Automatic annotation (TrEMBL):
Family annotation (PROSITE patterns): ATP_GRASP (PS50975), BC (PS50979), BIOTIN (PS00188), BIOTINYL_LIPOYL (PS50968), CPSASE_2 (PS00867)
Domain ATP-grasp: 120-322
Cofactor annotation: biotin
Residue intervals of the Lipoyl-binding domain: 545-619
Keywords in alphabetical order: ATP-binding, Biotin, Ligase, Nucleotide-binding
Protein name in UniProt: Acetyl/propionyl/methylcrotonyl-CoA carboxylase subunit alpha
Coiled-coil features, chain-numbered ranges: none
InterPro entries: ATP-grasp (IPR011761), BC-like_N (IPR005481), Biotin_BS (IPR001882), Biotin_carboxylase_complex (IPR050856), Biotin_carboxylation_dom (IPR011764), Biotin_COase_C (IPR005482), Biotin_lipoyl (IPR000089), CPAse_ATP-bd (IPR005479)
Any one Pfam family match given in the protein's UniProt record, by short name: Biotin_lipoyl
Residue ranges occupied by any Biotin carboxylation domain in the UniProt entry: 1-449
């Protein structure tokens, strides 16, 4: 058995491998870039070696540095995880040539499956069903156009060296083919240094079905059943589950047997995944499920297979790499229950899914389910790497039970100030079509407007923020009489600003009647609800604080008064707009904190004001 293992990766997969290695009594070595010097995988390993600057091309993708780190620390083996160099046959061979153990398939197997066109030909010869298409050597635009016309539109252009959704174009009609081909080739050349493409018939109701396979050096190959990875955004998986909903035993047996034939065709060792595209227009049928590609590594979504089989795939990888046979026979493997995984990304769905980076000042994923992460509170989400924060994994006796568990976990995610797709995940899971397993790879795109939650706080969230402040201030001053604590018997009026809007909200004194959670500090109140964070900047309780508690309307920031809606002596109602302040190119409506009378008005239209200036005073209506 391997005694010391170097993990040539970072983040959650490095932490995942370290966990199993430690359970097996194997010492671990982490590698890290400048950006990851204080990362969780570095803190978790027994040793760590710095391998270069933050960009992956200068650190995690430099095989020579990783092999040197293994030699320096006396590591016997290298586990590549997924991504980075995990499917690089040249690196795998370099590891072996250095006298180290490569925890993965043979370089020849990686090579055989590395180019999609060659892999399809190999699979066809092995009796594995492949999607109708063209993967010929003639790459002229005219020949490709001719083949596309023969296949019939819509057709899919795919880079032969592609991956991660890059180098793919759907073409709906013949007129668009040449422009799409040029665009696809340009992206493929930039991403993979190879602009060759293949063509496939576009499946109109596609589901992404994949089969986990495992081989050893003794000639054994088994499958660990299938996963459904149909929920994708821009070809990137978001939610994965096992087993595939709607898969009957006869179809499962046929597709899994095809996956085993595929693995045997390349003399496969270790963990791998055979990916299929299914035409699900009439349900899952074996004669409508076609080979797409093989991933010659551990998959991101491997935990759902582990959850339904009880197998630790990383342990199997380490045992097989050490020369042992696969621990279980095919007949010993069976499906137990249902598992679903969601990828929690640091991104802003309401902002076009742009990545969100920064320090995790507040980070709480709860204690339910299986959480795979590479970060803790206080860690940084770096702009240099994949924005995945964690994988949220659950197991249930039924699919419905697993859906409920995972949706609840997503809805209770508490992360700030980095934004995440937690609410988006919950919305996907709660969607009626998802619950009914009406799935295909276009699910998210078709429903995107209903799946992305608005990031505007509703009235209940505003109220909750004010209540949190009232509760916090009560707890801060428990030794004072209520009237002195709040400047009014049992009442606090919290002035808050959220996304440019300012309100003064009458808050509860000693309780918070809300299912939301959050925290309060001197500058802000943060409310967590339904997988989102809502940030409210607090009015300072400095020089004008006492007056603010009694109904003073203070400027939340420097700006220009562009509208005044009231005059001294006017009766106003709670929430009524009093004036509008323009600041930072945004308009901020200032409203009445309660029913009352405007007794002072110092603001005038067109006037410039400084932060915390008293603009008006509202006296509460006598009871």
């Amino acid at each position: 058995m391997i005694s010391k293992l170097l993990i040539a990766n970072r983040g959650e997969i490095a932490c995942r491998i370290i966990r199993t290695a430690r359970e097996m009594g194997i010492a671990t070595v982490a590698v890290y870039s400048d950006a990851d010097a204080k990362a969780l995988h570095v803190r978790s390993a027994d040793e760590a070696v710095h391998i270069g600057p933050s960009p992956a091309a200068e650190s995690y993708l430099v095989g020579e540095k990783i092999i040197a780190a293994a030699r320096q620390t006396g590591a016997e083996a290298i586990h590549p995880g997924y991504g980075f160099l995990s499917e690089n046959a040249g690196f795998a061979q370099s590891v072996i040539d250095a006298g180290l153990i490569w925890v993965g398939p043979k370089p020849s197997s990686i090579d055989a499956m590395g180019l999609k066109d060659a892999a399809k030909r190999l699979m066809r010869d092995a009796g594995v069903p492949v999607t109708p298409g063209y993967e010929g050597e003639d790459q002229s635009a005219s020949r490709l156009k001719q083949e596309a016309d023969a296949i019939g539109y819509p057709v899919l252009i795919k880079a032969v060296a592609g991956g991660g959704g890059k180098g793919m174009r759907k073409v709906d009609n013949a007129e668009d083919f040449e422009a799409s081909l040029e665009s696809c080739r340009r992206e493929a050349k930039a991403s993979f240094s190879n602009d060759e493409v293949l063509l496939e018939k576009w499946i109109t109701s596609p589901r992404h079905i994949e089969v986990q396979v495992f081989g050893d050096s003794h000639g054994n190959v088994v499958h660990l059943f299938e996963r459904d990875c149909s929920l994708q955004r821009r070809h990137q998986k978001v939610i994965e589950e096992a087993p595939a909903p709607g898969m009957d035993e006869a179809t499962r047996e046929e597709i899994c047997a095809a996956a085993v034939r595929a693995a045997k065709a390349v003399d496969y060792e270790g963990a791998g995944t055979i990916e299929f595209i299914a035409d699900a227009s009439e349900g899952l049928r074996a004669d409508r499920i076609f080979f797409m590609e093989m991933n010659t590594r551990l998959q991101v979504e491997h935990p759902v297979t582990e959850e339904i089989t009880g197998v630790d795939l990383v342990e199997w990888q380490l045992r097989v790499a050490s020369g042992e046979p696969i621990p279980l026979k095919q007949d010993d493997l069976f499906i137990d229950g249902h598992s679903i995984e969601a990828r929690l990304y640091a991104e802003d769905p309401a902002g076009g899914f742009l990545p969100s980076t920064g320090r995790l000042d507040h980070f709480d994923l709860g204690v339910e389910g299986r959480i795979e992460t590479g970060v803790e509170e206080g860690d940084m989400i770096s702009p240099f790497y994949d924005p995945m924060v964690a994988k949220l994994v659950v197991w249930g006796e039924t699919r419905a039970e697993a859906i409920d568990q995972l949706a609840e976990i997503a809805e209770n995610v508490e992360i700030w100030p980095v934004k995440t797709n937690a609410a988006f995940i919950a919305n996907c899971l709660r969607d009626e079509d998802f619950e009914d397993a009406n799935l295909d790879t276009g699910f998210i795109e078709a429903k995107i407007d209903t799946l992305v939650s608005a990031d505007e706080a509703d009235n209940d969230i505003w109220q909750t923020a004010a209540d949190f402040i009232a509760l916090a201030e009560t707890e801060e001053h428990e030794d004072l009489p209520i009237g002195l604590r709040l400047n009014a018997p049992g009442v606090l009026n919290a002035t808050l600003t959220h996304k440019g809007e300012t309100r003064t909200v009458r808050a509860a004194r000693s309780h918070v009647d809300s299912l939301a959670t959050g925290f309060v500090d001197p500058e802000r109140a943060v409310v967590f609800a339904d997988g989102q964070s809502f940030v409210f900047e607090r009015q300072s309780r400095g020089s004008g604080a006492a007056a603010a508690g009694d109904g003073a309307i203070l400027a939340p920031m420097p700006g220009k008064v562009i509208a005044v809606d009231v005059a001294e002596g006017d009766a106003v109602t709670a929430g009524q707009r009093l004036m509008v302040l323009e600041a930072m190119k945004m308009e901020h409506a200032l409203t009445a904190p309660f029913d009352g009378t405007v007794t002072e008005l110092s603001a005038s239209e067109g006037g410039q004001v400084q932060v915390e200036a008293v603009l008006a005073v509202v006296e509460p209506k006598e009871e």
